[in-house]
């Protein structure tokens, strides 16, 4: 039975996972570590399917397999749960809760249903409630036989050292330009060469950012963001153009893509900036990161959000003397 093709740009991580599965003493907890947009979510699900697959059998359906448990943000209320069930966009709770951990732990009192292995995915572990982290730690310290944990983390420093110390780290690397081009060609085959080149330049090695760039047609938004970073926006003219380009009622996915793009362009500015400007860039990036975590949960006004993004970019703009 053939195995799935390696993930573009993450072949080393995939081979490490396959080697671990084939070994006699596989570690029980794994930390999938790397920046957002590198494919950790898809990797975790494919890894879980490979883990529970019976020898010689087909890859299982992740959504329905009884031995694959995924802990992620739940809908924020019953109305949002209905939207999820209908396949509509929905708001989520801010954290993964202790009740979700306890429900998972209750399942661990029984043996795996179909085979000898069970996978627990926590996506992302960064967003566990404090009490949930402490509860999870007990399972990591005394894991049931045949149970393996995959903790997705964008910021491993946010996890308790006691959690990190019990996990084997699987690091996800930024992709090379040719690998990014291959991802875009695969997932958005209609994208032209110019759109692909712009997406690759803006992505800073993140396939998630590159795909968002192409799928949400962020070329003009990227151009305006770079103008703000290069020359500031004292008269708010560029911020107004940014809001107009975003549109009056953009879908939430487009708003999230713009947030990720803004974070990416700030990171690209960091290496060549002066020390004083680096501090401004880091501060603006931190605020954008907070907004990125809140935007899927709260119903932000799209116009105000894009103006906030523009304001943060303006706060980190190149000094006028240097810009000249």
Secondary structure: helix percent: 40-55%
Please identify the structural class as seen in this structure: alpha/beta
Return the CATH topology of the largest domain: Rossmann fold
Low-confidence stretches: 1-5
Q: How many strand elements?
A: 5
Mean pLDDT: 90
Task: Let me know the largest β-sheet.
Answer: 5 strands, parallel
User: CATH superfamily name of the largest domain?
Assistant: P-loop containing nucleotide triphosphate hydrolases
Rg over CA atoms: 21 Å
For the record, the CATH architecture of the largest domain stands as 3-Layer(aba) Sandwich
Strand residues, percent: 5-15%
Question: In the CATH hierarchy, what is the class of the largest domain?
Answer: Alpha Beta
How is this structure best described in words?
The protein has 2 domains: 11-171, 3-Layer(aba) Sandwich (Rossmann fold), CATH 3.40.50; 216-323. 52% of the residues lie in helices and 8% in strands. The chain has helices at residues 11-22, 40-52, 78-85, 98-107, 130-141, 161-164, 177-187, 193-203, 207-215, 219-231, 237-246, 252-269, 275-294, 302-315, 320-323, and strands at 29-33, 68-72, 118-123, 147-153, 168-171. The protein has a 5-stranded parallel β-sheet, with helices on both faces. α5 (130-141) links the parallel β3 (118-123) and β4 (147-153).
What is the compact description of this entry?
By secondary structure, the protein is an alpha/beta fold.
What attributes does this structure have?
alpha/beta; 324 residues; five-stranded parallel β-sheet; 2 domains; disordered N terminus; 52% helix; Rossmann fold
């Amino acid at each position: 039975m053939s195995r799935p093709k390696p993930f573009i740009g993450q072949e080393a991580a995939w081979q490490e996972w396959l080697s671990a599965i084939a070994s006699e003493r596989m570690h029980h907890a794994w930390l999938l570590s790397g920046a957002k947009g590198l494919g950790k979510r898809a990797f975790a699900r494919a890894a879980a399917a490979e883990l529970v697959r019976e020898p010689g059998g087909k890859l299982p359906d992740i959504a329905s397999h009884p031995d694959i448990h995924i802990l992620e943000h739940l809908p924020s209320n019953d109305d949002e749960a209905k939207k999820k069930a209908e396949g509509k966009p929905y708001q989520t709770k801010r954290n993964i809760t202790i009740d979700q951990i306890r429900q998972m732990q209750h399942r661990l009192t029984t043996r795996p249903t179909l085979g000898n292995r069970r996978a627990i995915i926590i996506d992302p572990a960064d967003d566990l409630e404090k009490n949930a982290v402490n509860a999870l730690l007990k399972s990591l310290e005394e894991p049931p036989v045949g149970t393996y944990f995959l903790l997705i983390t964008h910021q491993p420093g946010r996890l308790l050292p006691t959690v990190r110390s019990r996990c084997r780290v699987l690091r996800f690397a930024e992709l090379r330009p040719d690998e990014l081009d291959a991802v875009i060609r695969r997932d958005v085959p209609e994208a032209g060469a110019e759109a692909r080149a712009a997406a690759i330049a803006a992505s800073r090695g993140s396939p998630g950012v590159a795909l968002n760039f192409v799928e949400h047609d962020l070329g003009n938004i990227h151009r305006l963001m770079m103008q703000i970073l290069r020359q500031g926006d004292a008269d708010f003219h560029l911020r107004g153009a940014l809001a107009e380009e975003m549109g009056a009622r953009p879908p939430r996915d487009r708003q999230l893509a713009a947030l990720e793009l803004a974070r990416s362009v700030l990171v690209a500015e960091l290496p060549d900036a002066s020390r004083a400007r680096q501090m401004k860039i880091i501060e603006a990036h931190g605020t954008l990161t907070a907004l990125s975590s809140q935007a899927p949960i709260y119903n932000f006004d799209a116009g105000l959000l894009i103006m906030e993004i523009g304001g943060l970019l303006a706060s980190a703009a190149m000094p006028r003397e240097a810009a000249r």
